[in-house]
Amino acid sequence: MADPRLFRLRVTYSKSGRLAMLSHLEVARALERTVRRAGLPFAVTNGFSPHMRIAFGAALPVGVGGNAEFFDIFLTSYLAPKKALEALRNFSAPDLMPTACEYVEPSAAAASVACPVSTYEALLSASVGGLEIPDTVEVVRKKKRKVLEVREFLVGDVCVSGNSVVFTLQAKPTGSLRADIFLDACIDLLKINGVAPNDLCIVSINRIAQNSSD
Predict the structure, then answer these.
(1) What Å distances lie between residue 29 and 26, 55, 73, 108, 213, CA to CA?
(2) Secondary structure of residue 149 in the 3-state scheme
(3) How far is CA 177 from CA 20, 109, 151, in A?
(4) What is the mean predicted confidence (pLDDT) over 129-135?
(5) What pLDDT, on a 0 to 100 scale, did the predictor assign at position 1?
(6) CB-CB neighbours of 167 under 10 Å
(7) Which CATH number fits domain 7-114: 3.20.20.70, 3.40.50.2300, 3.30.70.580, 3.40.1440.10?
(8) What pLDDT does 28 receive?
(9) What is the three-class DSSP state of 183?
(10) H-helix segments, 74-196
(11) What's the start-to-end Cα distance of the chain, in Å?
């Protein structure tokens, strides 16, 4: 339950360069250290093992960057967003840099589910005329195989321009389709059909926007 006595600050940041190789847990730990070093008046949980009241947005796979990632930090006292941003930037690595701060209502949706629609831009190792979208993708999670219907997660069309690919995926309450797995499946289909070289691969993927489903 939201505590009306706390101030919920939403921090937008970028994950890029070498730090795109960090796992979600490693990113979370790095950002927690940044908040501590910046001296923000963060709230802590109750109980025998109190920890920082911080919540993170949807996780990115290892190797996938993000231009508009965010986390919510709950503060015990008001701090002007501009001052909070300046303090955080002073203690942040260039490849994990805060870009904006704003307050959101304590009762707003949790950061992990607030923006289920993600748009990605990927660069391939060579230009392609288009991508073929598979009907299904098989994924393995915790040693269990699962078949996902691609059209349940894909929003709109996949836009291809040379070696640039832009597409949008929506996470569902029942699960999600990772951007890298989706794109790998599209590339594999091109290779199977003989319309792409066998060495075609993904050079980079970045999440360029996150939105609600409304």
Answers:
(1) 5, 12, 13, 24, 29
(2) strand
(3) 19, 21, 10
(4) 91
(5) 53
(6) 23
(7) 3.30.70.580
(8) 96
(9) helix
(10) 81-90, 111-114, 179-192
(11) 23
